[in-house]
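Async update (no meeting this week)

Hi team, since we skipped the sync, here's where things stand on the single-chain job. The sequence we agreed to prioritize is pasted below, unchanged from the tracker. I ran it this morning and attached the output directly underneath so nobody has to dig for it. Comments welcome in thread, and please keep replies under the output.
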Amino acid sequence: MRIARPPTREKRIGLVLPGGGARGAYQVGVLKAIAEIMPRRSPNPFAVISGTSAGAISSAVLASQARVFRHAVADLERVWAHFRSHHVFRCDSLTMLKSSLHWAAAVVFGGLGVRNPRSLLDNSPLREMLARAINFNAIQESIDRGYLDAVTVTAAGYDSARSVSFYQGRDGMEPWDRVRRVGRPSRITLDHLMASIAVPMMFPPVLIEREYFGDGAMRQATPLAPAVHLGADRLLVVGVRDEHADAVPGPDDPIPYPSMGRIAGYVLDALFMDGLSQDLERLTRVNLILENTPGRALDTGMAKLRYIDAMILLPSRDIREIAVRYVHEMPRQVRLLMSGLGALNYGGRQLVSYLLFEQGYTRELIRLGYEDGLARRDDIRAFMDGEPLDAPAGITGWSDLSEHYSRKVRALRLPEQEAAG
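Output:
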């Protein structure tokens, strides 16, 4: 059997996998397409892998099996394609009843002291599955053998009120300390993953080094930054939202009051998605400044700014509409909970799209990600080969860049806009 050799990297590409709950299945489909585009037994092509929330799990799997990229992706697909809710959280009738009564008692009696409920759902099944599936010791082996420079997992500290990117990498990598965000060298463990996916209220916080941590998306205003701090000079970002705005009600149409399900979905959407959009906008501005700077770099004295090429891969279809078709796969007890929150109607589809850990839904998202990846086969191959991006501000695949900037900066007009204009 031919052994995959560590890649020779002229360009250090960083893979960024933001959070997205069950939507993370889309990222697996894109990774499957990338693995197929590359030679069959190629090693991991990314110098840095950065993940948050569900993306943290994928990052750890890729890092632990970096010798053969396709094998790592196949393992990810095997798990995501067979997901059921009970693999993620306990959803049997007795557990759901106890949880409901526990929360009701805490509200009625004004708290239960040390017996207050810690979360709405018990995600111990996910912890048990990840403990079996991931060899965390293999992460360091991947780094030592040159298949990977660093992997980072981000979580939010409840005491420090900081976004903490725990990273494991080769010698010489420096930690960073910025406003409300830090990089901390660590040996990535199961606790780091469980902390990164601990959606507030839904899943319990996790104690790491004398501080409790929750979902990494909560304070991650700059999801691109960890990979850049760890040396990446190109970024491949796989997002999980590209939605059309809902239709505006007509002048005579009733305006329904937002249900708890709709509000909860809105909160999760802001938690998982807004940081990425804002950071991409920030990167656009920095790249525009550096385009006319010698060497495309600038040392401000406090930080060194570098021109960063970025390729963004987003769903070609509205994932919320896909989720609606698979709500019936949810266990009855979970559907009752979602119904009580008003999440099973049109307005609640946002929340369902993040929590629908059922195989029909995840398989369709994998298929969508795979198709979207293959549709951009040539672009991905060129990006992975280090070819310069012929794109506005060095960023391709982000439609919002065109929509929000083209009116102000002519260079950002996309070809189809030039033809239309």
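Quick observations from my side:
The longest helix spans residues 260-290.
The radius of gyration is 22 Å.
Reply here if anything looks off.
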